TrEMBL record:
Keywords: Disulfide bond, Signal
The protein's name: Apolipoprotein D
UniProt cross-references to SUPFAM superfamilies, sorted A to Z: Lipocalins
Keyword Cell membrane (UniProt): no
Domain of life per record: Eukaryota
Length: 203
């Protein structure tokens, strides 16, 4: 589990990716295009995940103890229950959403909150949008990425989610190594606030 090398198909994936993608982060131009993660198995994403690191995202500035419960529906969609705690007042919050893959077997999906708003309005709610699983080993961690293009510029966001709230230093280094292969800067990440969490599961 402590092997820092990226083997087999993922090496070929990274070589192809690096030939296509330039510098990462907020900047000029439209969102970069990533090739899909090979052999992505959406059903292995089911279960409990915790946010352990992320890039800055204004909508999450007050959140802590972020926990995701993921299920796969009969239609192959992701059903997500996301629980957070307000870090300032300590109140819990739960949101429900659905992730619709771009196509069968795609690691990219459109996320929308479960509500009665028309889709045109619902897609503008905080958190709604297009997300991609850039890499995962299913058993320990996943790197999730989202990007928005506005006119001549784009802004992207990164989340590292894991099966446990706290991860070992060796695994964290492995994740950073994968991010560097993906040309994502680990220095952009900030540690998630996972202290004094009361809605524990699988820790």
């Amino acid at each position: 589990m402590g092997d820092f090398r990226i083997k087999g198909a993922f090496k070929m994936y990274v070589v192809f990716l690096c030939a296509m993608v330039g510098a990462r982060g907020t900047g000029p131009g439209r969102c970069p295009k990533y090739p899909p993660l090979p052999d992505f198995d959406i059903r292995r994403m089911a279960g409990t995940w915790f946010e352990v690191e992320r890039s800055f995202y204004l909508m999450e500035i007050s959140t802590s103890c972020t926990q995701l419960e993921v299920a796969v529906t009969a239609r192959g969609f992701l059903s997500l229950t996301i629980t957070t705690v307000n870090r300032w007042i300590g109140s819990p919050s739960t949101t429900y959403g659905i992730g619709i893959p771009s196509y069968a077997g795609s690691p990219s999906f459109r996320y929308k909150l479960n509500n009665r708003m028309p889709y045109v309005l619902g897609r503008m709610l905080p958190g709604a949008g297009q997300y991609s699983v850039l890499f995962t080993d299913y058993e320990q961690y996943a790197i999730v990425w989202s990007c928005t293009s506005v006119s001549i510029a784009h802004s992207d966001r990164i989340w590292v989610i894991a099966r446990r709230r706290e991860i070992a230093a060796g695994l964290r280094a492995q994740i950073y190594g994968v991010m560097e292969q993906l040309r994502l800067d680990p220095d952009r990440l900030i540690l998630a606030n996972n202290h004094n969490c009361t809605h524990e599961a699988n820790t």
